[in-house]
Every structure is written in C-alpha cells, then in structure tokens.
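[Solved] Which block belongs to which protein?

Original post:
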Amino acid sequence: MGSGGFGLDYWLQWQVLVCAFIFLLPTIISIRFIITKNLTPYLLHHHHLWIPYWRNLHPTWLLFYRIFAFVSMSYMLYLTVLRLGPFVFFFYTQWTFVLVTVYFALGTIISAHGCWMLFNELSSPIPNQERDKFLKKDSSSVGDSTVKDNEASFKPQMQLNQEAGFWGKLMQNIYQTCAGAVVLTDIVFWGLLLPFQTGDDFKLTLLIGFMHSLNAVFLLIDSALNSLQFSWHGLAYFVLWSATYIVFQWVMHACCLTWWPYPFLELATPWAPLWYFGIALFHLPCYGIYLLIVKAKASMFPRSFIRWLPPILSFKA
C-alpha cells in the first residue's frame, strides 16, 4: 500500500477479481439491454413531463414545486461543499444528491416550456381560415351553440400529444435512476451506517440528516404530483449509475486514495465478495420499493384524480 494509492499486490488479491465479476456482470447486462432493447415500453408523450397527475392541479403548481426543490437542493449542496469541502463528492450520497438536483433543474426547464406552450395555445385566436371553414359548414344546418363548440374544439392542440424528444427521455431516465438511488442511499445510511458508526470521525448533524432524507422526500412529492411513467426497465440505468460510482472509487484508489468512504467497499477482506454481492442484489428491492409506491398511486387513484386537462384540449394521455 503506497501513499499514492493501493499497490499492485492489493489489486491482485482473489477477492478483487471476484468483486469485479460481481459488479461487471450486471453492468454488461444492463448496457446490452439498453443498446438492444427499447427501454420505453410505453409511448412517452411530451405532456407526461409537465402536466400533473391530478385533475384540478394546474401545471404551474408543478413548475413552482420543481423550482422550489431545485433551489433548496442547490443551496443544501452549496452548504455541504462549503462546510465539508469538495471531498464530499467521493460519497455516493452526494452523487445521488447532485443527480436529483439535475432532475429538478431539467424538470423546471421542461415544465416552464410546457406552461409557456399552454399559455400560448389558450390565448391564441382561432385561425381565420379554420373559423370560416366551420362557419360555412355549420351555419346552414347547426345552431350557434354547435358553431361555438366547433370553434372551441379547434383550439390548437399544439405539441401536447407529440412524443417526447431527447431531453424528455433523458429526464425520464434520470427520474428512474434517482428513484432507486435515493432509496439505496437513505436505507444504507439510516439502517446500516448510522447505527454502527462510532468515534469522533462521524457526527450526525442537521445538514447531514437533511442530505440523507430530503433527497427522497423531494422526489417522492414530485412522484405524487407528476404523470411520468415508471417501470422495471429503468433498473438498467440505476445499475449503471451505481456501477459508475464503483469504477470511480476503484480508479481513485488505484491512483491516489488509501481510504474507503464506505467500509463495505473495502477489498482487503475475505468478506468483500459477500458485501459486493449483497449490495448488487440490494438494488432490486430498492428500485422495487419505489416502483410499488408509484404503482400504488396509480391503482388507488385511477379515475377520480385523472391528469389535469384544460376543457378545450382533448388528447389521449
């Protein structure tokens, strides 16, 4: 073990090869799945990204919430780096916290764009050509009420029903990645690390407690409000996210680090393969818990609280 990182003898231990196989195998499977399969079994429309799930909730409320969440998380991240230094980014918690912040930043932009489109569509006049067409068609046989209905139904349906583009799909993938990551982060911290951490090197502060709870709270509230789809297909991105963190840790320890931010990542122990296997397996229930929460929302409120739609806009959700 050298001052510039772990030596060659450390990396040639048998448990290192076993641990490498344990996290590389699901990583390769996930990459192959992403490349060869369509990870969107449903058609992701643009309106799924910014129209709330609830009937009477205007999209601007979802926009305001995402702005609030983004600003709050950005400020907490700033305070964390200011007080603890940039080394906090060696921890999975900060990786996940940054990812959730990016989700809310992207969600804010897309929600703002959607609300702007909605405002333009609701305030735009009916094109004269189309109005004349309806008036000519209906004036001879239909009353004024029908003409008005036709005029109202001709309000442009804009891009509400169009398929989401690159940024929309990116937002969807980040959302599903965050879902599993926040559950994994908070359960490991509150259920595994905190009860067994002793000594002066670790002290639970209000800021640390917020970092390991508000990430999930903010995302859960957004999940309760949004219309984003959620399926097992997003597990592949969650696995890649964690695998990227493991690769980062291994590279840093090969180059310069000699301490592990999490004791269960330590490789110089015969128990290392069991720890790595347990962590890899733990991704399934972490992602599954969040999936059940989203499915519960859809099953408990399937019709009574359907997605919000302006009366003059009709399309298939």
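(Second protein starts here: sequence line, then its structure tokens.)
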Amino acid sequence: MSKAARLLGVVQPTVSRRLEQLEMRIGARLVTRGADGVELTDVGERIWTLVQTMQSTANDIGRVAGQADMAEAGRVRVTAPDGIASYWIAKQLPGFVEANPLIKLELSTVQAGEKPIDPYADVTLQYTQNKRMDLVPKELATLHFVPFTSRAYLDTYGRPDGLVDALMHRLGDLVSYEEETRDAWPSDAQAIKKMMKPSLTTDSSSVLLEAIRSGSIIAMAPTYIAQRFPDLVFLDLDLVIPVKLWMFYHPEQRRVTRVRKVLEWLDDIFDTAKYPWFRKDFVPPAEFSEVETVTARGERPKPRIVK
C-alpha cells in the first residue's frame, strides 16, 4: 500500500480508501489484509490478469496517439536496475544531455525484489528475458559478476585461501530478486549462493558497493565497477558469473524520434567494442582498470545442484 501511494503521489490512506471503494463497487473482496501486508484473493488474481490487459491496451492507445508527435522534444522514461543505472548509465549522461536538450529523460531504478517490467516505461533494461509478448527484446550486454573486496578488508581479516575459505569470511549480498530475476544466475552459482551466510544483506547496489569499499565485506559485483573505482581489489577465486542485460521496448516506439534517440544512445554506451567489460567473454579487470588482483585458487565447494 505504501509503495503504491508513492508511485501514485498520494498518501497511503488514500490508496486504502480507493481500494475499498473499488471492492464495494464490484461487489467482491480483492485482497486480504494481514500483519505482513496484503495478498490477492482468488477473485483478485483473476481481475489482476484483466487489469494487466487493460493497462497494456491503454499504453498502446498512448503510443498510437504519440505517433502523431514525432518531435525530438518530450519525455522518455527508462527503467533499469539500480546498480547499472547509478554506476554506468548516469556516468554517460553528460553527452546525451548536451546533444538532446529538449528530451526530458526519466531514469527510474528497480531495486532487488521489485517487478522488472515497468508498464509506464518507454524502454526497460533488466537481467532476464521474460517479457510481455508485445515488446521487442534486445541483448544489450553481458555483466560479469566476480568477488570484490578492499585492501583494508584483506589487511584486517586476511586473504581467503580459496572459495571454500571465502564462504567463511564476512560476505555481503543483495536481497534475492524475485524468481524470474534469480533465474538469470547459472544453477551452480545459485547453489554456491545458498551456501553463503552473509554478514550484510541489502536491496541497494550502492549500499553493497560502499560496504565493499569501506573494508567491511567481500561481495559479488559486475566487473565494470573496477573501471569506476580503482581502489577495489578483485579477488580471483576462479568464480565468474555472467548475467545478460536485456533491453525491451514497444516496436512502435522507434517511430518516435526522441525514443529512437534514447535507444541509439543506450546501444552506444553498451557498445562492447568501446567497453570490453560488457563482452560475452570475460575480460579480467586488470586489463581495463588499475584495481589490484589477489589470486586465491584453493579448494572449491561441491554444492548439490537441484535441477
């Protein structure tokens, strides 16, 4: 309820009142309320499916109407995971803003556990290929997640002797994404992740990164971070987790000049010829950054992978 209120720009009691009014109008209870929040009833689940169709149709109406406006000026909403939005896309904004002063770019971030598809977005970036059938998918980049820490952490707690030993260290972890996002991780990596007993969990990539830099933890992070923060230490445990970054948009959007310019800009800032850390093949951080590499190739765990 609170999150809905924030998205709608109203207070939480207003959302509750509107929901109650809707239930009274249609004559059916849509949610059950408990200590842990609200949960859809069976009728609510069925109506929610119809609502999604209504929302998709409403968006299509807006797109058809918007095709009459092919101007470069106007709003373009991009939704992306908070880490890639904060530490990569935002860094590339100066050139785009200078070249496109009439485009109002709205960059909305998705935290761990949130729905990756934003029905109001013109362009959506996410780590899974799951999507609505009316959207065009494009594989934009590959992010290679590896263990990072800091020199302060190693000086305080010592270097792990391998992956088995590393699992006994002070670890940090992002709160698990919902089912479709977790599936972006390979099965062996998911199995190893289940063996972790993190000292810190968070739903914010920026919090996780600052905790790494502060000397508090070891945590997985994408290699492009090394190019931004040379004070990090790449802990080479022979553990590399490739995760694809996908871009989705409605095919009609390419006919709108301002959206097409944003799509072309996103293609450019994830160009693997310019930025080798986004290639499908793993490129060690030392090849494009000044980060220190500490190699620890000791014993590896043998997790039981459940198919």
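Accepted answer:
You had them paired correctly. Confirming on the second one: The CA atoms of residues 8 and 15 lie 9 Å apart.
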